Amino acid sequence: MALEVRPVKDVAEFTEGVLAIGQYFGMVANEERMQRFADQMTLERMHAAWSDGTVAGGAGAFDFTLTVPGGDLRTAGVTVVGVLPTHRRRGILRALMRAQLDDAYERGEPLAALWASEETIYGRFGYGLASFCGEITLAHEHNSFAQPFEPQGTLRLIDADDALEAIPPVFERIRPEWPGMFSRNRLWWENREIADPEERRDGAGPKRWVAYERDGSLEGYAVYRHKPGFEAGTTNAELRVLEAFGTTPEALRDVWAYLLAIDWIATTKSFLLPPDHALFMLLATPRRARYRMGDGLWVRVLDVGAALSGRVYQGDGPIVFEVADEFCPWNEGRWKLEGGRAERTKDEPDLRLPVQSLGSALLGGVSFASLRRAGRLAEVKDGAIARGDSLFRWDRHPWCPEIF
Q1: 276/271 Cα distance (integer angstroms)
Q2: CATH class of 134-293
Q3: H or E element in which residue 35 lies
Q4: 294, exposed or middle or buried, with CB in 10 Å at 0-12, 13-18, 19+?
């Protein structure tokens, strides 16, 4: 089998590469949609694999800036990775991962991150589970808050054009606070957040945007859909909350209070919420939200020194990691983190761990203690796990509010 992996040259090749995974989800090629997708990603970030002259697989990556604790890091936002079912178990996925991660590293991106359609695929390429998220299904009769309050702002519905101008600055005020959130450029807002084609609605109605204002300033927003319905003479409609943000705790509370009080709704649903979301403490009966948690963002450290040096810590260290990384061997060896900087060292290690575990811990959502309990690292020196967790802890769980 003759195998060639390279970036695509035009939209036609881009489409073939995307359909390697898209065909599993019933995707149909649409020239206009694929052109927008290619404009967003750029052709050079989409790798395809040709087997004997036929496109048999593809792997793309967005150019993101990802929030890490106290900072930002350039990140390859990996997406549309797939191999045709006719070409499985021929080394195509490995070749695509090799080309893609090498490319990201050469671009100076310390991290790659993705949402895994199947959790068992990406660990062998160095990705570690870095966050958890889940969905809620809250019946309307259980929408009461635990404490009484008076709303401090006002809300108004806005149209798509107003949302495109008003909402992005609010998001950018919130993003630096949440490890796991990624930057959205103008094209992303237009194509992913504001655009509302029928095929994205999953049987529900169009997007609704609501803006939250306080003292003349926009401090929050929500995006949601109605899925209307009646049964036995009463509503069984769903409200699907796509995003709900506030720049202050009061703004977030007021936005959610508005959403949960919307009339003619039987059930409110929301997806990708972190396990420490404020809503669980706001609700009087949080168990009624029926929270179902799963894996969220997976992180791959491409440059140990740059990745560790790019975030803020709760102290100066030092701590020495001995990192194993078979797929990206330039990461292997001992790294000393001290004073917020990580550099190679010959010092004896405190912790010995695979690069997957370092990716899990980087955003502060997975502790070294939990990794040790799962057999995913070794404590070489007594007390090293406690010191590491003290350094890496953050005040919130990582949150990526959108699958890319």
Answers
A1: 14
A2: alpha beta
A3: helix 31-41
A4: exposed
Is the pTM here over 0.85, yes or no? yes
d(CA 322, CA 332): 7
Domains of the chain, by residue range, sit at: 3-109, 134-293, 297-392
User: For residues 125 and 101, is the Cβ–Cβ distance under 8 A?
Assistant: yes
> How, if at all, do strands 341-344 and 234-235 pair?
unpaired
User: Which are the catalytic amino acids?
Assistant: 122, 404
Pick the CATH number of 297-392 from 3.20.20.70, 3.40.1440.60, 3.30.1050.10, 3.40.190.10: 3.30.1050.10
DSSP string over 200-235: GSTT----EEEEEEETTEEEEEEEEEEE--EETTEE
262, two tokens: 């919307």
d(CA 322, CA 219) in angstroms, rounded, equals 44
The 10 Å Cβ neighbour count of residue 196 is: 13
- Among residues 342, 295, 309, which one has the least CA distance to residue 74? 309
pLDDT per residue over 17-57, tens digit each?
999 999 999 998 889 999 999 999 999 999 999 999 999 99
